[in-house]
Amino acid sequence: MKKLILIALLGVFCAGLCQAQTAPYKASYSSKFVIADQAHANKVLALWKDYENNTLDKHLAWFADTVSMTMADGKTLKGKAENLKAVKEHRKGISKLKVTVDAWVSLKSTDHNENVVCIWGTEEFVMNGKNVKQSVQEVWGFNKDGKISMMLQYVMAGGM
């Protein structure tokens, strides 16, 4: 799994170097990214640890009041208070959570001057008496003030 992710990341970066003339699609947002400040990735990693430790109130100041999060089930939550309430409710039903982080990268869109962090990992936990393992991919966006403004989550049951 880890080798696959690293190969995919290298492929993305190599493709980015030569895609200007050969890309079969035009990106609707951006295709111009550079490696960005690791501080953004460190925030996301700390938030994953907060989720694992069930200390969800620890870094609320890092979120914009207008944060928008689209969860793996397709539901979009808007606002800091609504997101916190939903994640606490979800986390309450989970026990024995173990998180493994496979890879992350902090990127900056040079044409929009915006930062994102992409992270891949695995969660193993017990929910409703059943053992669950799932692969997780998230994209976290940061606003101009360095606060988290959005998150997109993708989950694959069973893990990789």
Which key terms come to mind for this protein?
160 residues, alpha+beta, single chain, Nuclear Transport Factor 2, Chain: A, 31% helix
Protein architecture, described:
With 160 residues, the protein is an alpha+beta fold. The protein has a single domain (32-157), classed as Nuclear Transport Factor 2, Chain: A (Roll), CATH 3.10.450. It is 31% helix and 42% strand. It is built from 3 helices and 7 strands; from the N terminus they run αβαββαββββ. Strands 1-4-5-6-7-2-3 form a 7-stranded mixed β-sheet, with helices on both faces. Strand 4 (94-109) and strand 5 form a beta hairpin.
Short description:
The protein has a single domain, classed as Nuclear Transport Factor 2, Chain: A (Roll), CATH 3.10.450.50. It is 31% helix and 42% strand. A hairpin with a 5-residue loop joins strand 2 and strand 3.
**How many β-strand stretches?**
7
Please state roughly what percent of the residues sit in beta strands, choosing from under 5%, 5-15%, 15-25%, 25-35%, 35-45% or over 45%: 35-45%
When the domains are counted, the total is 1
Q: Using the alpha-carbon principal axes, give the shape.
A: globular
pLDDT averaged over residues: 90
CATH topology: Nuclear Transport Factor 2, Chain: A
Give the neighbour order of strands across the main sheet. 1-4-5-6-7-2-3
How many helices does DSSP assign? Answer: 3
**In CATH, what is the class?**
Alpha Beta
Taking pLDDT < 50 over at least 5 consecutive residues as the criterion, the unreliable ranges are: none
Order of helices and strands: HEHEEHEEEE
Rg for CA atoms? 16 Å
CATH architecture: Roll
- N-to-C span: 6 Å
Overall structural class, as computed from helix and strand content, comes to: alpha+beta
Helix-residue proportion: 25-40%
